[in-house]
Design goal:
By secondary structure, the protein is α/β, with parallel strands linked by helices. About 40% of the residues lie in helices and about 20% in strands. It has a five-stranded parallel β-sheet with strand order 2-3-1-4-5, sandwiched between helices. The chain has a four-stranded parallel β-sheet with strand order 7-8-6-9, with helices on both faces.
């Protein structure tokens, strides 16, 4: 049996991810109380339900501390458990709640109808979900649309398994560091194709930009240094039972240098490891 646990911040897209899993043939349950996790899995086992997806969130705040131990017990019973945590920056979450006019689950303080400010509720939620975030693969949904999130979740499923999967992600520092990054490499000191008139409106996916960057030895040096660092630590990450490692490479605009290096790194490591790549700014359109 395989089970995917989806948790994360309210407004981060958990329902969208659950729909993607449902499309992929998973038996999905939203907002299952943590007390029922182990009994529910035991109930489904005799009914030939090999793929389960369960969403939990802060609405079950008082019993969330039960979840880590339950996951360890399920793994000991032979269940393949994968945890996904959806996150987004506070500004994005505030905007999404404002657009939908929904009340945050932690906004209400008590029966006297007193309410927390939205930002305070979001920060409290981060504290309550901190341990679950540490034990999951984090997906930053701040700058991706619903359809993109669904595609990304489905791509994760295709690469899921017992071998560590590398996720290489390009981004622009001017739009913030991705929340889901395990390692961040800053390549803003490298020669910038943006200042070449013929290359400015192209990206690191285009051959002229790639040729420009290949012609500079410091770009190759950066590639080799990142490659050597990751190669040195990959087996240690495997021993730490990591399922995914996200390596974020950032430049100023997220169009040229970071994109080129993500493509190069994904090609190099893809020979020996399951590998995914994302270009945050290009996908954001």
């Amino acid at each position: 049996m395989k089970m995917i646990l989806i948790t994360g911040m309210s407004g981060s897209g958990k329902s969208v991810a659950l729909h993607a899993l449902e499309d992929a043939g998973y038996y999905c349950v939203d907002n299952l109380p943590p007390e029922l996790l182990s009994p529910f899995v035991a109930l489904k086992r005799p009914h030939n339900a090999p793929k389960l997806a369960i969403a939990m969130d802060v609405r079950s705040a008082t019993s969330l501390p039960l979840v880590p131990q339950q996951l360890r017990e399920l793994k000991a019973q032979g269940v393949e458990v994968q945890s996904l945590f959806l996150d987004a920056n506070t500004d994005t979450l505030v905007r999404r709640f404002s657009e939908t006019r929904r009340l945050h689950p932690l906004s209400r303080i008590d029966a006297t109808d007193q309410h927390r400010a939205l930002v305070d509720a979001i920060e409290l939620e981060r504290q309550l979900l901190g341990e679950m975030r540490e034990q999951a693969h984090v997906i930053d949904t701040s700058m991706i649309r619903s359809a993109q999130l669904q595609r990304y979740v489905k791509s994760l499923l295709q690469h899921s398994g017992r071998q560590l999967t590398l996720v290489f992600e390009s981004f622009a520092f001017k739009r913030g560091v991705p929340l889901d990054a395990d390692y961040v490499f800053d390549v803003r000191m490298l020669p910038n194709p943006h200042y070449e008139a013929g290359l400015r409106h192209q990206t690191g996916l285009d051959e002229p930009v790639a040729d420009f960057l290949k012609a500079h030895s410091e770009v190759d040096d950066m590639f080799r240094h990142i490659e050597q660092f990751l190669s040195h630590w990959l087996q240690a990450l495997v021993r730490d039972h990591r399922s995914y490692v996200t390596v974020a490479v950032g430049c100023t605009g997220g169009q040229h240098r970071s994109v080129y290096l993500v493509e190069a790194l994904a090609a190099a490591f893809g020979k020996d490891w399951p590998t995914l790549k994302r270009h945050r700014e290009l996908e954001a359109g």
